[in-house]
Amino acid sequence: MASSRSVDPAELRAAIMAIFPWLSGSSPDPARPDLAAAVRLSLRTLAADAPGKSVEVRVPPFAAVQCVEGLRHTRGTPPNVVETDPRTWLELATGQLGWADAVESGRVTASGSRADLARWLPLVRL
Prior knowledge:
Elements: H1 9-23, H2 32-49, E1 55-59, E2 63-67, E3 81-84, H3 86-93, H4 99-104, E4 108-111
Parallel strand pairs: 1-3
Antiparallel strand pairs: 1-2, 3-4
Helix pairs in contact: 1-2, 2-3
């Protein structure tokens, strides 16, 4: 699990800007460490903005965090899970993709009554 330590907004913005040309379709795939940093910092930001342990947000292969207030999950597969790929997560985090569209199109799988992250997105406005 990624840490929910607070994230310096400037550090998050720099990480997002490093991969933004790729997100906007104007450059090839970013370096893996750059992509990992953007995903991890944005997930840590979500965990800080929506503290709790009732929803697990997974962005394999880079990170997962628990967030959103509610009943804490401690063992096995949690009842509230959100999972997506790095590109989709970063599009959500930057507001390039809306939550409802991502879920409806199948780019995000969200299960459980608390697995709607729309109120916390986007995390970064560009």
